[in-house]
Amino acid sequence: MMKKFNLFVLAITAGSLFTSLLILTDKHANADINQQTARQLLSAGKILPLEKITKLAKAIKPGEVLETELEQKKGIHIYEIEILDAQSQVWEIKLDAKTGKLIKLELED
Q1: CA distance 89 to 64
Q2: In sequence order, what are the residues at sequence separation of 6 or more whose Cβ sits closer than 8 angstroms to the Cβ of residue 21?
């Protein structure tokens, strides 16, 4: 009886550790990229410069850039740009950081 209980506790513990690992892995898979890493990616030609990305975003949705973020999602580097338009609406524009191609345009709530 004690052996079955120990196996049960071991299985629960292993499951909890596995779930924690998945959560941490998923969190880091969509993590923001710091400035040092961004500079390295830019030097390696893996992302476009922020100035070019900003121009591309403003061509899609004219306005004032409020915020920019560089993230990696599913192995792809993505710039997320928030723009305030002339009607005081905030838009989120997601661009492929390497090509500048539009991934998503969304009106923020």
Answers
A1: 11
A2: none
Asked whether the beta carbons of 51 and 62 are under 8 A apart, the reply is no
List Cβ neighbours of 29 (8 Å cut-off, separation of 6 or more).
72, 73, 74
* Closest-CA residue to 57 (of 67, 47, 44): 67
Residue 89 · residue 47 · CB < 8 Å: no
Tell me the pLDDT tens digit for each residue of 49-108: 999 999 999 999 999 999 999 999 999 999 999 999 999 999 999 999 999 999 999 999
Give the residue from 97, 100, 106, 88 showing the smallest Cα distance to 38: 97
- Are 68 and 80 within 8 A, CB to CB? yes
pTM for the model: 0.70
